[in-house]
């Protein structure tokens, strides 16, 4: 029985705490924070607060990357993004390519199945760890040399511990001749979602920097970057 389970038995379910663990993957020598669900409600909370953000990003990518055009026979055609930055968008597209059904219908089914599977796996006693995004990690055997828990925290809110890294406040702006604004964060050159690396005004550069920092944060918490 874990410490959190002991606390809940002692004080009842009114004590709402979340168990976070930092897992180091030995071969890659990288470590990430995960939520260790101690009850089904933890999975519900995680899905409603964390997973839905990835779902929203995948849906946004789908909606905002639609290309409508007229074919040679005069009919209206639609093309969509072939690759996605979000785990959700990529997962739905992969399934959709196989089943060849409506994208939204696939997304709806996947959302329901993803939640149900997580609850079922927990009830089966699987050693489950939830990332700060869509991916989960099932650790079948502890102390197997593949990974290890190096730190644990108990928090009242479902907010993942964040490693120190650069944020929007750390952005440095430069203007060349007052007509070409660029921005950097650390050694990184900032680009907007269209791939532009300079703008006519500082305001435009700030908008690009905020988008870039949010995008970078998303990639970091999903294990794409250090």
The outline comes out as globular
Average pLDDT number: 79
Query: Main beta sheet: strand number and arrangement?
Result: 3 strands, antiparallel
Cross-sheet strand order for the largest sheet:
2-1-7
- Unreliable spans: 6-12
Strand content: 15-25%
Radius of gyration: 21 Å
Total E-strand runs = 10
Helix content: 25-40%
Q: Give the N-terminus to C-terminus distance in angstroms.
A: 33 Å
Question: What's the number of structural domains?
Answer: 2
H/E topology pattern: HEEHEEHHEEEEEEH
Structural class, by secondary structure, is alpha+beta
Helical segment count: 5
Fold and architecture overview:
38% of the residues lie in helices and 21% in strands. It is of the alpha+beta class. The chain has two domains: 3-155, no CATH class; 168-221, no CATH class. The strands form four sheets. The chain has a three-stranded antiparallel sheet, with no helix packed on it. Strand 1 (18-25) and strand 2 (30-35) form a beta hairpin. Helix 2 crosses helix 3 (87-99) and helix 3 (87-99) crosses helix 4. The protein is globular and about 60 Å long.
